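[09:14] KT: can someone run the structure on this one? pasting the chain below
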Amino acid sequence: MKDIILITGVSRKEGLGFETARQLIDSGNRVIITARDMSKVSELAKRINAEGLVVDIIDQQSINNLVEEVEKRYEKLDVLINNAGAFFDMGAQPLDVDLNFAKNAFDTNLFGAWRMIRAFIPMLRKSDNGRIVNVSSGAGSFQDPVFGLSAHQGIVPTYGLTKLALNGLTVKLARQLKD
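[09:31] RB: done, C-alpha cells below
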C-alpha cells in the first residue's frame, strides 16, 4: 500500500475529486473519500473500492469526528486533498453579490480547507512524507480571464476571490510547513 489519502468534496461521479480518487486507487493507494451526504459518498466509494466517510467542512465538530475516525482506523494520514468547493457564481458582478452568499462561499472554499488542515496536521506529521493539496482554480489567478482583469465577460467574482484566498493560504502554509 502506497499512501493513505483523504479527499474532501467527493459527491459526483463527474467531479474532479472522484476522478482523482479513482486514479489514486488504481495506483495502489488507500483512499478515503468524503462529502456531506453519506448516501452519495457511499455509492461513489463502492464504485471505486474506496472508503467513504461523511464530513461537513464548515462544521468543526463534523471535522473532529472525521479526524477521530481516521485516526482510529489508520493512525496517520499521508495526503490531505482539499477538493471541496462550491458557490460558482458565473456571470455575477461584484457589487451585486449578496454578502451572505460571499460569506458562505469563503466559509466553504477557504475556511473549510483551513479547518481541515489544522485538524489533520497532527496525523500528517505522523507520516514520513505528509502532503497537503489544495484544489484551486484558474478563477483564483490574476492571469486567468475568468478572474476578471481582462475583457472576458464570464467572471465568477465570489468563487474567484475564494480561490485567490486559498492560493494565498497555500503559499503561507507551504512556508510554515516546509519541513
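[09:33] KT: thanks! The chain has a mean pLDDT of 92.
[09:34] RB: yep, looked fine to me
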